[in-house]
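Revision sheet: structure tokens.
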Amino acid sequence: MGTSQPRIDELQALCHRYGPGRLPRADRYEIGAGYAAAAAAFVAAVAFAAGTFVASLIGAPLTAAHPFWSGVGLVAIPFVVPAAFVAGTLVWRSLPASTPRFGAVGGVLTAVLTYVLSLAAVFFVLALYAVAAGAPEGLEAAVVELAALTTLIGIFAVVFTTWLTIPAAIVGGLVYERANGRSSAE
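Predicted:
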């Protein structure tokens, strides 16, 4: 497999030494997968924030290279990390063991479900804020408005981050599978 094999081995060794394996119930396969997914989501969010911040410092000619996006990446952490934990746990619990390339497929499905769950959390937080701030007169209108805003946030999140989150999820899934003694290259 060339140079990618040693890198996966190095990541696996790092995960065993410093990873989330010492967290509560991490020895349970699906819970460990949730921790691994949460760690991958955290790394991706921090990498996105750092990358956009550095790009803005060096004057990258991209609209996406604005310091605003660095803040968005950091603000997303409380949404995406718990969502990734839940998504990873659910995917690893329900995906059939016979799935070819289980780690990679599980990683992609976890990333997709993480977007859905984190956007549901965003909607919930926005709804709580709207209620606390005295939502518009019609509850139905407020829900429609919040759904539209959440959809817009989701579109931006997918457009700006999938280039990073999908590969991070695939690598996270492969490393997790390998760390658990399973082959994901079947």
